[in-house]
Amino acid sequence: MSYVFSPVPTASVAVAGSPDRFPVRRIFCVGRNYAAHAREMGKDPDREAPFFFSKPADAVVDSGETVAYPPQTENFHYEAELIVAIGTGGRNISEAAALSHVWGYAIGNDLTRRDLQLQARDKGRPWDFGKAFDRSAVIGPVHPVAAVGHPDKGSIRLTVNGETKQNGDLAELIWSVPEIISILSHSITLAPGDLIMTGTPAGVGPLLPGDTCVVSIEGLGEISTRIGPREE
Questions:
Q1: Residue 101 lies in a domain
Q2: Average pLDDT of the chain, as a whole number
Q3: Of 35, 46, 129, 159, which has fewest CB within 10 angstroms of its CB?
Q4: What is the reported pTM?
Q5: d(CA 169, CA 203)
Q6: Total number of domains constituting the chain
Q7: CA–CA distance, 61 with 91 (Å, rounded to integer)
Q8: Nearest to 22 by CA among 5, 34, 10
Q9: Range of 103's domain?
Q10: Please, are residues 78 and 160 in contact by the beta-carbon 8 Å criterion?
């Protein structure tokens, strides 16, 4: 079999302490999974069923890279997140078995064109242009479960130019990692290489060209992103 043009390379993210890369199949994102962030977005933080959106696999950006200020936005935001890397696929996964499907964890930054997202939300339209644009998923090195266990508490913090903007705790997740995996797997069959961005604490806000954004999670280190000039 041949292709009409060469397939694009497999998207991947770094692995902590290894030259190997973690191949990325899909990126799922949990919306409004911290109560304080739900409130700052004008929504009720009650524990209703979680909802998901996605980013393309090739939106991933390694820590240390520069991300151009994206086009068609005047309100470009950061969102610090814990990332779950799936190593064993499955469907209808129980909460009790969910963590056995995790290969590791990473730090992420869910970059967002907030004005486009809110315009779409208010009109009942998909969030793709606000969330799923080029280079919108900064993902740090994945730490294997064998090295870091399963983080369910600890600081998650984001700074812009050294000033703290987000300061939460993983224990504040409305839906835990096992619950998220189980719920998602009852709708979509998970596969090795899937990443799940688990939501962001309160304090989201704008980034400008020249800013340096650092996200840290207790036990996972930190990642850094510089914002470059506006992309035309």
A1: yes
A2: 94
A3: 46
A4: 0.94
A5: 13
A6: 1
A7: 28
A8: 10
A9: 15-230
A10: yes
